[in-house]
Specification:
317 residues, single chain, 1% strand, mainly alpha, 66% helix
Length: 317
């Protein structure tokens, strides 16, 4: 799985080891949100995603530390290492952490290389998707950062609005261009196509674009784990059993968290491995859950009852 997967997997599990920059921005965003300063909030919260990635991407973080220690050559080497992707193409020149590098001839070479990488993409679409990605992931980071209570509940409602807007934006791109590969829009843009469809509030969107995603995986224009998540989501939306074990219901009440029923529980790790996913036990551990096939089978009647009740409630049956 690509490096950018951290944005999806860690946002699903919780926030870990964030530096002061993220905390400061998150508190500012919460202040804007609670005071109803909508314009300031909407301008600020998308920045949370890149702040998070910078603080958690080893090569970038090490480059910042190397500059502080005066090891400018090591900093440049680390930044060159990240230019094989689009992850930081648009941030390097503006990041004040690297001001000390600006007078070096190697810096101009680095920025020229970043510009050349960007020019090799459909840059208009890549930048549109980067905005979608920042909103999609930024609001989720803020939601996870916020403690339980009315503000978190309101953020959840706001997230649905963001997801609806992101879904509409990405649907327009997919309808015009098809499922663009990472060589066309970068790894971040390619993953954002998946994330926006996966998070869409309209289940019909997920059903519509799943065949397109399946074809893209076969052609190498998308990752197998993208298809696994979207496949399971569409099955869950219809009240069916899932295939890859990517969907789980996490409750604040002990005993009410469960994995959505599996079509082939005895083969789930083999199926997950086929699309590049970790074993189910490792995945569930991030949610404070355990995977014990025998326990799952003994609890299955109870799990199916909770799952059925949830589906009927959400579908209005």
């Amino acid at each position: 799985m690509r490096t950018i997967l951290v944005s999806f997997i860690l946002l699903s599990c919780g926030i870990r080891s964030l530096a002061q920059g993220f905390d400061t921005l998150a508190e500012e965003c919460l202040g804007y949100f609670t005071r109803g300063e909508t314009d300031l909030f909407e301008a600020a919260y998308p920045g949370l995603f890149m702040e998070y990635v910078k603080e958690n991407e080893p090569a970038y973080r090490d480059a910042v530390e190397a500059v502080r220690e005066g090891d400018l050559g090591h900093a440049l080497s680390n930044l060159r290492e990240r230019l094989d992707t689009d992850l930081f193409l648009d941030e390097l020149a503006a990041d004040t952490n690297f001001t000390r590098l600006h007078n070096l001839p190697q810096w101009e070479e680095l920025i020229s290389r970043a510009d050349a990488v960007a020019a090799g993409y459909n840059n208009e679409v890549r930048l549109r998707l980067k905005e979608v990605q920042a909103k999609d992931q930024g609001i989720r980071l803020l939601y996870l950062y916020t403690g339980d209570g009315p503000v978190k509940d309101k953020l959840h409602q706001y997230m649905h609005r963001v997801d609806a807007e992101s879904g509409a934006e990405v649907c327009a791109i997919l309808d015009r261009y098809g499922w663009l590969g990472p060589d066309e829009i970068g790894e971040g843009g390619n993953e954002t196509l998946f994330l926006a469809v996966q998070h869409a509030t309209d289940a019909d969107i997920q059903l519509k674009y799943l065949p397109m995603l399946e074809e893209a995986v076969l052609d190498g224009r998308a990752e197998g784990w993208h298809m696994a998540f979207l496949t399971d989501r569409t099955l869950m939306n219809q009240g069916h059993k899932q295939v890859y074990g990517t969907q789980k219901i996490v409750s604040r009440e002990p005993g009410k968290s469960y994995i959505v029923p599996l079509e082939h529980p005895e083969q789930v790790d083999e199926l997950r491995a086929s699309v590049g996913l970790r074993p189910l036990a490792e995945d569930l551990a991030d949610y404070g859950m355990e995977w014990d096939p025998d326990d799952y089978m003994s609890r299955l009647p109870e799990i199916e009852r909770m799952y059925r009740e949830r589906y009927e409630s959400m579908s209005g049956r």
